[in-house]
Amino acid sequence: HVVDGEVGFEGSRPGHRRRAVTENDPQGKYPRRQRLLCPGEGGRWAGMSKRIAFLGLGVMGAPMAGHLARAGHRVTVYNRTAQKTQPLVAQGARAATSVAAACSGDAVLTMLADDPAVEAVAFGPDGVAAHLPAGAAHVSCSTISVALSRRLAAA
Fold first, then answer.
1. Residue 116 — pLDDT band, cuts 50, 70, 90?
2. Could you tell me the sign of the dihedral formed by the alpha carbons of 25, 43, 53, 118, in that order?
């Protein structure tokens, strides 16, 4: 239902409204995913399929990358163990041979084990910081220290 230009998703409490990107998802099929990837009507990602790299395909990373691919984004995947990319390639993702090769799109998401792994991938000679295009974003989903979070934000 629509009230004053805002869409209330099914299951919303009366008076509790959340904005939706109606051009992308008129049926409200993916309300959370669309709000995450499309920050508002006319926002930077509204109505567009994005080129997203996903680095780290473990227990959490592989399903996250799969969801992005199924949502229509062009996903490039990389993992130190190359075999972990194969199920996602079968779903339509593209496998990169290095971190640098993966960093050519609109965003790079990392889901890695710890600070040393994130540091190596982000700040290594062939890392995200050295190869991320201007205007692209690095989103670290890893559990890392505050100090490393600050260092990533400053990069």
1. very high
2. negative
